[in-house]
Amino acid sequence: ETGVTQSPTHLIKTRGQQVTLRCSSQSGHNTVSWYQQALGQGPQFIFQYYREEENGRGNFPPRFSGLQFPNYSSELNVNALELDDSALYLCASSPGTGWGGTEAFFGQGTRLTVV
Amino acid sequence: SQELEQSPQSLIVQEGKNLTINCTSSKTLYGLYWYKQKYGEGLIFLMMLQKGGEEKSHEKITAKLDEKKQQSSLHITASQPSHAGIYLCGAPAYSGGGADGLTFGKGTHLIIQP
């Protein structure tokens, strides 16, 4: 039990649509980050939020956006879905300002299928 | 950019045998995280290493970070069916407070044969 909960667990969307994925972090964890994991690959960093502000971003286009809320929940929004967006989306939370020596815990993931 | 290479890509081990998984970085590591993943599920935190030469153990799993901080190994003693899964190593891009998330290797698929 990591204390990080993601919803929904599975989702099917049509190309061109928009999707919102949700994550509930552990209480007190000010940093949340999102990852995309394609089949057979390691997770790829999308972006990171610290105290409701984005403070780091990977190599993903602007149609990937996010929000973090004061209650330790966060969202990943993807606009204009493409077939290649089909993947497992993971969120991770940690108590520190980033990955500086603190343990970090992942949720169980949301499997997104774009058809 | 930092790259992590894991070896082997896949491993089939008879139950009860020992095994080692390696993670090699193209740059100095400022921390190294080991996770286990069941197929299609989330990542389970195993251990985090920071200092050169550091070694940590939990139950039958031991992780080490070499003195030069460019390679880490994960060793499982007397493997059990519950050890089966995908093992991932991940590392932050910068030292302390990095805001660029973790870079991951592609994972090592471990199968335990009864």
Strand proportion of chain B, as a percent range, falls in over 45%
Order of helices and strands of chain A: EEEEEEEEEEE
Sum up the overall morphology of chain B in one term: globular
Mean pLDDT of chain B: 91
Count of DSSP helices of chain B? Answer: 0
DSSP strand tally of chain A:
11
Strand content of chain A: over 45%
**First-last Cα distance of chain A:** 32 Å
Number of helices, where a helix is a run of at least 4 consecutive DSSP H or I residues of chain A: 0
Which chain pair has the greatest contact?
Answer: A-B, 35 and 28 residues
| Terminal CA distance of chain B | 41 Å
Q: Secondary-structure element sequence of chain B? A: EEEEEEEEEEE
Q: Determine Rg of chain A (CA atoms, Å).
A: 13 Å
Look at the helices and sheets of chain A and give the structural class.
Answer: mainly beta
> What's the multimeric state?
heterodimer
User: Over the alpha carbons, how many angstroms does the gyration radius of chain B reach?
Assistant: 14 Å
Largest sheet entry of chain B: 6 strands, mixed
Helix and strand content put the structural class of chain B at: mainly beta
Describe this structure in words.
The complex is a heterodimer of chains A (115) and B (114). Chain A is mainly β and 115 residues long. Chain A has strands at residues 5-7, 10-13, 19-24, 31-37, 44-50, 53-57, 64-68, 73-78, 87-94, 105-106, 110-114. In chain A, strand 4 and strand 5 (44-50) form a beta hairpin. In chain A, strands 2, 4, 5, 6, 9, 10 and 11 form a seven-stranded mixed beta sheet that branches. In chain B, the strands form two sheets. In chain B, strands 2, 4, 5, 9, 10 and 11 form a six-stranded mixed beta sheet that branches. In chain B, strands 1-3-8-7-6 form a five-stranded antiparallel beta sheet, with no helix packed on it. Chain B is an all-beta fold and 114 residues long. Chain B contains no helices and eleven strands. Helix content of chain B is 0%, strand content 54%. The chains are: A mainly beta (115), B mainly beta (114). The A-B interface holds A 2, 4, 6, 33, 35, 40-48, 50, 55-56, 58, 88, 90, 92, 96-101, 103-109, 111 and B 4, 31, 33, 35, 40-45, 48, 50, 88, 90, 92, 95-107.
